[in-house]
Amino acid sequence: MRRRRQDTLGGGHVMFHPRLESKLDMSSRGEVAGSLLHPEGPNIGAQSERHWFSKDPHYPERTDLLHTGHAQGGKLVIVMVGVPGRGKTYIARKVARYLRWINYRTRVFSLARMRQEQFGQKQSADWYDPNNADAHSLRMEVLRRAVDDMMRFLNRGGEVAILDGTNVTKDRRELIRKAVAQQDGFSVMFIESVCDDPEVIQETLSGVENYSPDFIASDDFARRVDFYTSVYQSVDDDEGMLIRVHNQGQRICVAGLQGFLPSKLLAFVSNLHGTVSPPVYMTRHGESMFNVEHRIGGDSPLSDAGRQYSGALSDFFEKLPNVSDTLCVWSSTMRRARQTANPVVARKLCKRYVEWRALREIEVGVCDGLTYQDVKQEFPSEYAAREENKLRYRYPRGESYLDLISRLEPVIIEFERQAEPLLIVAHQAVLRCLYAYFLDLPEEEVPYLSIPLHTVIKLENRAFGWREQRFTLAST
User: Among the options 31, 214, 361, 399, which is catalytic?
Assistant: First the structure.
């Protein structure tokens, strides 16, 4: 289990990590604990075996990647292109997070991180001078090592590798293309980020100045950008599949795109906007009558405690400065969620209110209205199957967590378009999935994330990560 840090700020807990309801549940099955867990997914580190996943029925090869008559199965290499400070890392991380969330084994290979590990941080702009032959040779060495690591990752069970770097010259991109062409069935797609709008550039630079470990000073960074600009060669249509993003999504250009996954990524990237996103607030509905009776499913109304929480929730947002004019509220269509959101809407504390069927609680099928003790007695085999694999278990005539992730995909696409603060009022399983998406958590953790009743979770996105606060508004 990763070590995690927690502080307090402004009355809420500031979190830099997920919260698990039961760490023992996770470690007892070895899904999180253990030396084989790699930060980018289980058993895909340097010591993993080729096609390790074929031994596990839960990790079949994908059949929806590119296929051109090859034997191994399609693998995709995404290459970021653009001068520094134009949002490449932001896009790369967003794409990787999205792909991992929809169950593609994806890893980002950061040239900057590899360079920092090998040669140290805060290299001056002269290190990036194209006329500095020694530094150029060292940077090409880093690129070759990154490409080798990508090929190793893809040959050991990875499905999508993202190369996060400038890659502004054709000779660098040709080196990558040749390495990919030597592999059976691997394909390349470029995502080029171009910015010429001063406001967009300033927005992306603020993230670099505040969070980049390489930033020294504004004038040094400007010289570094000038060096890259002097040798910049935009991606040509004949180099491969291309998505070119202008000014953080103001205009999108596409060339040569083919296949299911590249087309899916086009839809996702098209909905991304600036590198600074407004905060998102998440809360479960207030306590319902089924919560009181420990029953699952159903469409029960709020209990007295739940109604008190709905009032406390509206009080919470009334006290927030400069929020009511811009706040959007998304609610599940289920009665307990609508009743929780109603005071916020009735008191005109939001700009727009939308009800989503996709935000409804996980469907429990024939177990609807039962307690877990009832399920254990009436459906012992189903109870045991759920205990064995809560992530993939599907209720009879109901859903699994993986089904729920698929159902929530339109919500994620719409979220990426959001330019205003957002409040999501939904249910425990739904918010676990969304929380895992925002914080880029392994899917194995999803069923065990702690999303307590009567608590507001505030997430603020930064160029290089998320910050979390939790506000408990009422006891249960």
Answer: 361
